[in-house]
Amino acid sequence: MASQTNRHIQTGQDGERKAAAFLQQLGYTILQLNYRYKRAEVDIIAQKNNVLVFIEVKTRATNRFGLPEEAVTPKKEELMLSAAEEYIYKTGWQHDIRFDIISITLSTPPVIHHIEDAFH
Questions:
Q1: Contacts of range 64-70, beta carbons closer than 8 Å, 24 or more positions apart
Q2: Chain segment 68-79, per-residue pLDDT in tens
Q3: How confident is the model at residue 3 (pLDDT cuts 50, 70, 90)?
Q4: Residue 120: inside a domain
Q5: Which residue range is the domain that position 109 belongs to?
Q6: Helix (H), strand (E) at residue 32
Q7: Which residues lie closer than 8 Å to 80 by C-beta, 6 or more apart?
Q8: Where does the source fall among the domains of life (predicted)?
Q9: I want to staple 113 with a disulfide (CB 3.0 to 4.6 A). Which of 5, 8, 42, 103 is the partner?
């Protein structure tokens, strides 16, 4: 069981690295990785122009059990919103914000799907 858990963690970390590189290629500045507030975590906080973007990364080895983005639950959205509120408060951010999902399937080559403004 431990090896399956380790594989799952490794898959997630691999996806987050790929997502960060993908965003940087698109001109985003990565501000924070794995930002935590209480029980919430935001995988990537990035900025592009005057928009602060909170990003959930979902990675799967295959799409056999559904698309990665389908795993973002309303509870996860709620937790991200609370973490975003805290980050905005701590940093004094006063411009636009957005919540995105980056869905990655680790096929060859990997398939990356960037869903902008995924929820509010």
A1: 67/103, 67/105, 67/113, 68/103, 68/104, 68/105, 68/113, 69/101, 69/103, 69/113, 69/115, 69/118
A2: 888 899 999 999
A3: low
A4: no
A5: 2-115
A6: strand 29-37
A7: 40, 42, 54, 56, 99
A8: Bacteria
A9: 103
Is pLDDT above 60 for 2?
Answer: no
Q: What is the CATH number of the domain that holds 80?
A: 3.40.1350.10
- Residue 109, preceding peptide bond in cis (omega within 30° of 0): yes
CA distance 99 to 86: 15
- The DSSP secondary structure of 34-92, one letter per residue, reads EEEETTEEEEEEEEETTEEEEEEEEEES-STT--GGGG--HHHHHHHHHHHHHHHHHHT
Q: Which two tokens stand for residue 39?
A: 């029980």
What tens digit of pLDDT does each residue of 7-58 get?
A: 777 878 888 999 999 999 999 999 999 999 999 999 999 999 999 999 999 9
The pLDDT of residue 81 is above 60: yes
Domain count, the chain: 1
What CA–CA distance (Å, rounded) separates 82 from 54? 11
